Amino acid sequence: MELSVVVLAGGQGRRLGGTSKALVDLCGKPMIFYALRVATSLSSDVVVVVSSEEQREALSKLLGAEGIRIVIDEQDLGPSCPLLGLVSGLKAVKHRKALALACDMPLASRDVLYFLADVMSYMNASVPRWPNGYVEPLQAAYRVGRAAEVGEELLRSGEGIRMGSFLKALGRVRYISTSVLKQLDPGLSTFLNVNTLDDLRRAEVALRARGLC
Question: Pairing state of beta strands 4-8 and 45-50?
């Protein structure tokens, strides 16, 4: 399957004691390394999206020899937000199908991500959805051309801040129940999002249990 991966790394980590989530220390490594470990196992076309030149320079020093491209948010499209990062990344990838993965999901499952890309079929996106209706658009698969087009239109209109609005405008979204994804990742730790120090400690415990820390 021809597939690209967009790793979103523009977020700030102020609650984690840093200025960039991607660089927050997790088991002695920058947190983004865990997302990139999965991303590069899925595709040779990996694009990391940051929100500033400062972030780009910091990551370039770490990833310069890895063959991973780093792009900065196209801030002329609109204010900084996850959709801006996604659109900026989609416009930079090589393939027609791409996975999105936030850098603060260090336990992301390769099997879950591959499944999302595989079952997208003729749809515009494949997005996990919890029983309460909450969705995971930053660990999902997208049809690149259509998603980039719709996202850019929303950003330019000033209505593209919320990912929910984007998915509604995109249409033909295949929502995958997390109960199905449990067959691939029983604890659904793939969706652990590191926002606080408690989250960071949980991620470290889980990584140690897997021998990755």
Answer: parallel
Give the C-alpha distances (Å, rounded to integers) separating 135 from 2, 6, 45, 54, 131.
25, 18, 25, 31, 9
Which residues make beta-bridge pairs with 125? 142, 173
Tens of pLDDT, residue by residue over 108-142, are 999 999 999 999 999 999 999 999 999 999 999 99
Ordered by where they begin, the domains of the chain are 4-209 (3.90.550.10)
pTM, full prediction: 0.94
Cα–Cα distance for residue pair 186/206, rounded to 1 Å: 13
Residue type (1 letter), 148: A
Report the C-alpha gap between 36 and 198 in whole angstroms.
22
**CA gap 29, 24 in Å, rounded:** 8
Residue whose pair of structure tokens reads 């027609």 in the numeric block: 96
